[in-house]
Amino acid sequence: MTAIDVTPAGNQLFQVDIRDAQGESRHEFTVPDDLLIKLDTDGLAMQDLVFASVQFLTTREDREDLAPRVSLADVAERYDDFVEQVPELARARATDERPPTGARAAQERADEDEPLTGRERLIAETKEAQANGQASRDTTRY
């Protein structure tokens, strides 16, 4: 099984770590504007799009054969089905039931009436103060 980690590294630039039974490799993937126009990316996170692109590639090429820097435009030119397949893979990934993380997890815990702690509590209190119109007028220094 292949494990893929996608980390944003700049504007339309992503660092991708790929691990399989034979080893691990790191690559930089770029997503050019002209490719985004060709792809049906409406509502898709670019990170999911890159993840799906790497999935697409690793089913067709060996991990160790991938260049250190990969432009998805080049991949789209090499594979005729890329423009059709990758958005579908990305949508499938985006709709998978995964455990919530980040803000979504904090909101779900708050909805369950579990007490928030630490940073989550501070964020919730700040949002509440903003909603009441008090945050911008508070002059207390900490």
In words, what does this structure look like?
This protein is an alpha+beta fold and 142 residues long. The chain folds into two domains: 93 residues, no CATH class; 30 residues, no CATH class. The chain contains six helices and four strands, in the order βββααβαααα. Strands 1-2-3-4 form a four-stranded mixed beta sheet. Strand 1 and strand 2 form a beta hairpin. Helix 2 crosses helix 4. The longest helix is centred in the middle third of the chain and has 14 residues. It is globular, with a radius of gyration of 20 Å. The N and C termini lie far apart (50 Å). The C terminus is likely disordered.
Write the layout of secondary structure elements.
Blueprint lengths: L2 E8 L2 E8 L2 E8 L2 H6 L7 H13 L10 E3 H7 L3 H14 L6 H10 L6 H14 L11
Parallel strand pairs: 3-4
Antiparallel strand pairs: 1-2, 2-3
How big is the Rg?
A: 20 Å
Assign an overall shape.
Answer: globular
Helix content: 40-55%
The number of domains is 2
**Which stretches are poorly predicted, pLDDT < 50 over at least 5 residues?**
99-104, 134-142
Mean pLDDT: 79
Largest sheet: 4 strands, mixed
User: Structural class of the secondary structure composition?
Assistant: alpha+beta
Structural features:
alpha+beta; globular; 142 residues; single chain
